[in-house]
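During the second half of the funding period, the structural biology subgroup turned its attention to how the target accommodates small molecules. The most pressing case was T4K, which had performed well in the primary screen but for which no bound structure existed. We therefore specified the complex as follows and requested a full 3D prediction, including the ligand pose.
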Amino acid sequence: MKSIRQVTASRPSLERDDGFRPWDHLAQGIGSDDASQAKRSIDDLRIFGGACAFPEVLHVGRPNIGDTEAFIGHARAILDSRWLSNNGPYVQEFERRIAEACEVPYCIATSNATAALEILVHALGLKGEVIVPSFTFIATAHALKWLGIEPVFCDVDPLTHTLDPARVEELITERTTAVLGVHVWGQVCEVDALQDICTRHGLRLFFDAAHAFGCRQGGRAVGGFGDAEVLSFHATKFINSFEGGAILTRDPELAKRARLMRNFGFEYLDSVVSLGINAKMTEICAAMGLVSLDGMEGFMRINRANHLAYQRGLAGIRGLSVHALASQEASNHQYVVVEVDEPVLGLSRDQLLEVLMAEGVLARRYFHPGCHRMEPYRSQPQHRDRELPVTERLSKSLLQLPTGQEMTPKDIEVVCALIQFVAGEVSSIRARLAAGTGEIA
Ligand code: T4K
């Protein structure tokens, strides 16, 4: 048995700058083969020398895998066909299926969502400033900045976590050319209010829907809102194509421009008619995407059940709640988001996270800090000095728990029991942490 000092000395830290990934470390942790092992005293917690609840780490973003045999069959067919990329039949079929699911006429599959956003910035002819939430994955802001557009960070609504339309309107200047909303956690933005603002001010409106494939609101599917929307099929998304993305639009001219730009601006053979990059999806990625799409109903069912299990398992904890989406007809429940109210719970979000990480529950703190607190934005006064109180609060209080196909009901039960145990022992955990034996790094 290792001593407390040995265990705590090698505990994973949240703040590192050397490329360290916490799960590499956790795989070497002291483990219990019995994941159901209950914690009876705080000495049983891994941060204080107890056994790790999950020696095989639980990840947020573990890929859902569809029918492996079907995928292998497609892989063989692709190799045999000698057609590996450049708008092949798998990509065309993937685009047809996504357009159908999103109820839009045009889908352009891309290598990832970030490239899709960048293509849209060009295809929409954006310049100057674009209003965007700071409470998002950094890709949303970087896609603008990379192309010389200034992201103007806007605060979000405390309940929906999406762009607050009233705040958007305050930020419009003569340099503003567009608003870019993010359907974070699959929560559809206030699309009508945003559309109204954009129409009145002559702005383009587009959406980062990386989290929201399969979600619906007001009788409409995500994919058809604004001028265009972007999906992500990254491995960590509930439908994945290894890496991948897509642009969805109802506008035939915009679709045509985006399609050209995805492939260097080639119209055919030797004819280049516009600026373009290489953002093509490969055939193998499209095959993975198609297999994943075939499993979509099952993945949604699992995510829904997991969400419900977390809601039940974490009920009754004062100062900790599972975030519920505002009224919406359909959601992929891709993320299980927990909000920690530190003064009420008695532990900070980061203290709870450290306890969970030590136990092999690799919860995440998306999106901490907000984009305006990361480089290259935070060193610029216009971003650093911007007041975004809701973003600041959310980035300090939210935690995402593992979900998806890999999580069994038993895993969720153990994670919930662990959190319930921690919530019931807050004072002694705090005292022990303060005494230094399990000091938070
Ligand atoms: N807009 C929004 C709102 C987004 O959230 C994202 C991506 C984008 C745009 C850009 O989309 P893409 O250009 O990627 O298509 C992860 C994902 O990598 C990222 O795609 C995603 N958002 C973001 C929310 O989460 P990280 O930096 O947290 O990734 P990482 O490497 O820490 O992996 C997450 C967890 O998943 C880890 O615990 C490991 C696990 N994992 C990951 C992969 C790739 C696996 O178990 N298997 C895997 O294959 O960003």
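Two results from this model are relevant to the next phase. The domain at 4-60+296-437 is CATH 3.90.1150.10 (Aspartate Aminotransferase, domain 1). The first strand starts at residue 58 and ends at 59.
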